[in-house]
Predict the 3D structure of the following.
Amino acid sequence: MNDMRQIERAVDMKQTKITARGVQVYYGDNHAIKDVSVEIADKTVTAFIGPSGCGKSTFLRCLNRMNDTISICRVEGDILIDNEDIYDPRVDPVQLRAKVGMVFQKPNPFPKSIYDNVAYGPKIHGLARNKAELDEIVEKALRRGAIWDEVKDRLNAPGTGLSGGQQQRLCIARAVATEPEVLLMDEPCSALDPIATAQVEELIDELRQSYSVVIVTHSMQQAARVSQKTAFFHLGNLVEYGETGEIFTNPEDPRTESYITGRIG
Amino acid sequence: MTDQTASQPSSKHGSLLAVDARTKKRNAAETRFKAYGIGALLIGLFFLVTLLTAIVSNGSTAFSQTYISLDVTLNAEKLDPNGTGDRDEIAKVTTLGYTQIIAEAVANTMAANEIESPLPAGALPLMVSASAAAQIRDTVLADPSLVGQTVTFNVLASSRVDGYLKGRVTRESLARDRNLGPPHLDIVDQMLDAGVVEKRWNLAFITGADASESRPEQAGIGVSMLGSFFMMLVVLFLSLPIGVAASIYLEEFAPQNKFTDFIEVNISNLAAVPSIVFGILGLAIFIQIMHLPQSAPLVGGLVLTLMTLPTIIISTRASLKSVPPSIRDAALGVGASKMQSVFHHVLPLAMPGILTGTIIGLAQALGETAPLLLIGMVGFIASNYPDGLASGFLDPNSAMPAQIYEWAKRADPAYYERAWGGIIVLLVFLMTMNIIAILLRRRFERRW
Ligand SMILES: Nc1ncnc2c1ncn2[C@@H]1O[C@H](COP(=O)(O)OP(=O)(O)OP(=O)(O)O)[C@@H](O)[C@H]1O
Ligand SMILES: [Mg+2]
């Protein structure tokens, strides 16, 4: 409990990275996100929890405009990153996604070599001036993805030939290779074993030093372990948002309490 | 113990060792279905074998041809009466002037092999192809010093003699023939024994030009093969980029609305439009409005491009669709633009499908005859080789399937064999294209 307190105090000083105000998302007629307003702090891990189908992924995908690729999806309201409206017509979603990286629920490495998987982002964003620099970026990213030791001898092997957990860590390495400022993770550990999960969690904790991390998870323990702030979604509504310690020990809303104690889900 | 468990099943499912009625029925249905499948396969295989046997047995003879080796005395009095030895002077003698020389050569050859015949000397050259005169004249013109010498020529036998060696022509069938009679065949028999007449592998069938109706022994598919080749170049270089670009736009970039739906439906419909409709469209637009030359491979290629585009677009879109969306998400997620995600990730994955679709479209176009009918590529005697790229695209030519159709139409039964032979050549091309498709597929798939 003591260290929870410490984290709380740390959070207070962090400045806001992402502000969402009155966000509504519709899939055709399906109202998937209902008037969600939230402030996500910089250099913090924020966890989204909630029962399946409540709109966690949908809201997460709003933050880097991945919903643009779904033609029936409509987003209303304001989402600001560093006080800039990311749905402003002048914003190029490509630039936005270089700043806001994403790790998907299902591992989706490119059907290319492990090296190329990680090197692709830095290459298209011109982060490396030469091969040596690129090698360095790739190694650093793979190390941060906690997978370097497993793949360092076979960087030219196909990324799709790795196990599910390794693939997911490769995807994390790929996402951090482009040096984003915000990292969105949609259930990054759902395909990982406890050891790999622990590694990824450690990694998330480390990423917090430099990024704002938003993670969707179904595991309460995970949310409690890695996050400083937690948002509980239910049926498209943001029911409760606050310090993780507060949410798990002393939830205000009865729905949050029943979910955490396992009564809805 | 075992007996006990079998007779007293402890669970409601009964013993696993006994097959119950439901399972039996299901297994029987499965067996029946497998039998149907194997039956269908066998029927298909039977037809395939029958077809191939028919094609090979009817067409393989087109690849060999009967030749007569004649000792031709190039009579200087006839060919170069003034004794100048000048090429231009010798060129004044037309092929008609060689008739007599050939007649003498046949008589001499017969005499040399002690072959006797009741036929008058004038009837003897009928065993030799009408092409022989031109062949001898060309040789003489190439080397005027041959005049006055006796040179051995391998000349084509006439199509009747060739037919006799291949079993198509018999003494009975010749009874009412005005050109050749049974006495000729007696000579051929003796010449065969003497080794003067011989059936040989005939490369000229593959490389040669078409010939007039009366000289089937000389006709080859080579020129129309070039016609097909130039047409395919046009089709490939127009339909592949246009088709792939259109598909990528429709599949990845176009907004989903009524207009794109309309286009989509129309492309599917176009794929089902009979090819002759494309032919008449080509006639109207390319020839009557744009005044492109008739019978030209360029026009043929344009028409076939129209025909191939829907096929390529449909298969390309299908293979783009089959690329999992998670790959696109992954690319967009690391900040790739739409264009980068398509060209770096989606297109390479769709490549095997696109290539297969393209090659199948090309193969279809290669075998297409009907539209060529309307733009004048059928009925044309493709007797001149194109002399360069421009003439290859613009000079009147035929195409392989059109040539085959043309041969099948001609009256002389010797052309029948050539039509089958042409089909073999066409099939070899189609099979080669399919093998290339498979190899390319493999090559691209190896890169996962
Ligand atoms: N591509 C889509 N098209 C239409 N509706 C969608 C789409 N994606 C999600 N939805 C709908 O939006 C709602 C929220 O879905 P979302 O995927 O955000 O849930 P989630 O909280 O991430 O669930 P889970 O925990 O199972 O991943 C659901 O009702 C779902 O049916
Ligand atoms: Mg989800």
Remarks:
- Chain B touches chain A at residues 255-256, 324, 326-337, 340, 344-345, 349, 447-448 (CB under 8 Å).
- The beta strands of chain B are 64-73, 150-156, 197-201.
- Residues 1-6 of chain B have pLDDT under 50 and may be disordered.
- The pocket of magnesium ion (ligand 2) is lined by residues A 56-57, 105, 186 (CB under 6 Å).
